[in-house]
Amino acid sequence: MGKKKNRKIEEYIAGALLFVVFGAVMIQVVNRFLVKISIPWTEELARYAFIWLSFIGVGIGVKRKSHMSVELLRNALGKNEKYLLILVDIIMLAIFVISAVYGYKLTGKLLASGQKSPALKLSMGYVYLAAPVGFTLAALHIVIQYARKLRKGGETWW
Fold first, then answer.
1. Euclidean distance between CA atoms 85 and 157, whole angstroms
2. Among 152, 7, 149, 135, which Cα is nearest to 86's?
3. DSSP secondary structure letters along 81-150
4. Strand ranges in the chain using DSSP code E only, listed in sequence order
5. Residue 2 phi/psi, 5° resolution?
6. Nearest to 40 by CA among 23, 24, 53
7. Which pTM value belongs to this model?
8. Among 85, 83, 60, 58, which residue's Cα sits nearest to residue 70?
9. Which phi and psi (to 5°) does residue 42 adopt?
């Protein structure tokens, strides 16, 4: 597999999850109108796929540097803007790492408890695993971005 395909794995996973959400909701809607009966597992599947899609999206947003920032403050800083961006990245990295660590701990407890979802009988640990995985991806993207910048000599930060 080429390097470009490896870089897009998150986008492919997000696309597949979006397809799952859409498909599950469509099955539910069509079944309610035609058969007049609700299928419980489709709602649960759509919900859990959407949760995973949201947290994978955090990593994609950081990778694309499309997270929110305060433009007014950035513009007011002028040439010192890069220091604000570095500070923001450090704060985000700390939050992502702390959230991932505690998320993995919680996921481990849920997997050990054996708690299952009502309709799919899926371990709730796998549902909660979405948060630490998404935060880990986001933290990795920040580290990768700085590694690339340092490798290029750090002459252009943004």
1. 9
2. 149
3. HHHHHHHHHHHHHHHHHHHHHHHHHHHHHHHHHT-B-TTT--BHHHHHTHHHHHHHHHHHHHHHHHHHHH
4. none
5. -75, 170
6. 24
7. 0.86
8. 85
9. -70, -40
**Using CA atoms, how far apart are residues 92 and 137, in angstroms rounded to an integer?**
12
| CA 150 to the chain's CA centroid | 25
Per-residue pLDDT in tens (0 to 9) along the chain, 158 residues: 455 556 799 999 999 999 999 999 999 999 999 999 989 899 999 999 999 999 999 999 999 888 766 666 667 777 788 888 888 899 999 999 999 999 999 999 999 999 999 999 999 999 999 999 999 999 999 999 999 988 887 555 55
Query: Tokens for 122?
Result: 């899926």
Q: Whole-angstrom Cα distance, residue 21 to residue 49?
A: 6
